[in-house]
Amino acid sequence: MKYTNSELPNGESHDAKQRQLDNYRVNNFGTQMTTNQSVKVSGDEQSLKAGVRGPTLLEDFHLREKITHFDHERIPERVVHARGYAAHGEFVLHKCMKKYTSAKFLQGAGTKTPLFTRFSNVAGSKGSSDTARDVRGFAVKFYTEEGNYDLVGNNMPVFFIQDAIKFPDLIHATKPEPHNEIPQASTAHDTFWDFVANNQESAHMIMWLMSDRGIPTNFRKMEGFGVHTFRLVNSEGIAHFVKFHWKPKLGMHSLVWDEAQQISGKDPDFQRRDLWENINAGSFPEYDLGVQLIPEDDQFMFDFDILDATKLWPEEIVSVEIIGTMTLNRNVDNVFAETEQVAFHPGNVVPGIDFTNDPLLQGRLFSYLDTQLLRLGGPNFAEIPINRPVCPFHNNQRDGFSRQRIDVGQVSYHKNSLADNTPSTTPADQGGYEHYQEKVEGHVIRAGSPSFDDHFSQARLFWNSMAPYEKQHIIDAFSFEVGKVQSQSVRQQVVDMFCNVDSGLSAAIATAVGVKRPECTPATSEAASPALSMKNTTFVPETLKVAVLIGDGFDSTAIGNAVRSLRNAGVTVDIISERIGSVKGRGGKTAVANQTFITASPVLYDSLFVGGGTSGNAAEFNSYMRNYIEEAWKHFKPIAFTNDGSRHIPMTSVQEGPGIIVEKKQSDVSQAYINALAKQRFWHRSIYK
Q1: Residue 378 forms part of a structural domain
Q2: What mean pLDDT is predicted for residues 357-384?
Q3: Most CB contacts within 10 A, which of 28, 110, 320, 437?
Q4: Could you tell me if 158 and 314 are in contact, meaning their C-beta atoms sit under 8 angstroms apart?
Q5: Which of the listed residues 359, 387, 415 is the one where a domain comes to its end?
Q6: Which reaction is catalysed here (predicted)?
Q7: Residue 246 contacts by C-beta under 8 Å, 6 or more apart in sequence?
Q8: Cα 412 to chain center, whole Å?
């Protein structure tokens, strides 16, 4: 096989490319897949189950070997979710859930449970940037009186794949390409989109990732989801299927893509810094915990399979019931000891919470424990302080790396008479954990349920639910990501695939990435779910960050009043000038600038308040002012001007209208500006309203 010049976009010589291909062919082309023991594999897409909707079987040696190898591919940082940040807090239950679960921390309204929450990026390494387009992890460890319960999820309610056996393939495709270790923390490359085009169950998740949800403003303003379908089981043994939701009190808000890229260079720690600074300032992030519940007898009532992790339960069909609130109120004392050593595991449950036969969840129940064994050096990671339950634990497990507890006595087995059979088991009616007694029957089979086969209906539902500007952001994200793909064949496959979601979407991507527009069959469903659009979120000014821009001779009365009223509204204020320290205003009054035009950047703030003033170098001062204003304007942010500061408007592209406030009086800032701050973005500046 020979290459033509058109197939060598990077300028490689024919001989070099041919050697690379020949080497790959020798090792891979034409071969048959086997296990590491050279046993030929009959299927690599589905785990072994008891019936097509049954639980995954431990005897699936191919699944266990594949995931075990994947779990141990990176040391010492996490294979995924390596870049993370965390905080301590508490959960307060508002509504008794005794009707649905026997879990004690969900029984009495007002019950407080300490917890630890870690947010993370999935794809990048520990040293990557916070603001990359990516899924964000949202993992919560509840230290309950019955033991630790881990709710390990993401900021998106669905996932790329339906079966855990494909998880190593997904991450291999997502990570930097192995031949050159490029690109870092980005899915804008060939292997990821090749995986997407050839594993079309990912369509729904891709719509979420390409939307504004993929670049949240910060951890305080993004939702969290348990992703999987779990079970709640009450004391009478009655079960309900459940999905968990975290809803931020500050609403859901996102960055603009250009803004996210700039922040990545200006402050790669932007989101972790935001969490740290707000908790230190007493602006504690809060999230309501909601549940969606489906009685066991109703599981087949829907046009999707409730066990399919690539599907959500639309809130208009299954409402979200708020049952409590999480508050993050204390930063970590040591990032390594706490954030890095915390070990989450979806298999850490307490009585009253159980699993389902979701094949992605079933594989996670094995994988998380396995990966902690390598990453934390052995089986005793539960003894690390951040992982320790608040209630004592007793068992016959002994020794191993990093054992901290000094066990005494001669007995380390069950059953025994020498220690009066202690530690002893606890009957279920006295608090012992008992798995839900679901009837399981079926042939041992490597296959998926036909009820998982619809890959595009909910992707279309998501698209239909977006506001026009949100749709344009999705098109722009596809255009950037797929536009980075070198293979024309892969670009065409992606465009053809999303023809199944929306013809306009696929046509727009095709035009942007230079491939043929496919002939799409018009969509038959216009169903939408308003809950999926971020335009319907909460809008408040609290905890927003405003940059006040001043120079010598600024109107000190107007600026003093503005800073006071902004802080009274819960807004954080930075004063920015040419130099750090005192800046003289009119009448001899001064203000203290804590940032300069160089050390700060407009992309690091939610809004600007332009106070005016002068400088010995007027040209440079005006240039800084103009650049700050232009950037904020371009990113749809509200901007306020004092009467003096408004002289900078004619130097810029700014046009008067909503979100542009000129404060002509010296009194406190107007309510119009506070309202504009709360709105945060003014999309009318785009043609996509």
Answers
A1: yes
A2: 91
A3: 320
A4: no
A5: 387
A6: 2 H2O2 = O2 + 2 H2O
A7: 138, 140, 153, 223, 224, 225, 287, 288, 289, 290, 326
A8: 43
Strand-pair partners of 293: 242
Domain membership of residue 618 as a residue range:
539-685
pLDDT in tens, 273-316: 999 999 999 999 999 999 999 999 999 999 999 999 999 999 99
For the chain, what percentages of helix, strand and coil (3-state, to nearest 5) are there?
35, 20, 45
Query: Per the domain annotation, does 604 fall within a domain?
Result: yes
Q: Which active-site residues does the annotation give?
A: 81, 154
Residues 652, 432: contact at Cβ < 8 Å? no
Question: Phi and psi of 85, rounded to 5°?
Answer: -150, 150
User: What single letter denotes the amino acid at residue 286?
Assistant: E
Residues 312-362: pLDDT tens digits? 999 999 999 999 999 999 999 999 899 999 999 999 999 999 999 999 999
**Considering the entire predicted model, what is its pTM?**
0.90
In this prediction, residues 421-438 reach a mean pLDDT of 87
Which amino acid is it at 46? Q
CATH (domain of 124):
2.40.180.10
**Per the domain annotation, does 16 fall within a domain?**
no
Residue 337 is given by DSSP the state I
**Worst-scoring range by mean pLDDT, 127-141, 410-424, 606-620?**
410-424
Q: How many domains does the chain have?
A: 2
Sort strands 444-446 and 353-354 into parallel, antiparallel or unpaired.
unpaired
Q: What is the token pair recorded at 73?
A: 């591919």
**Would residue 453 count as lying in a domain?**
no
* pLDDT confidence of residue 661: 94
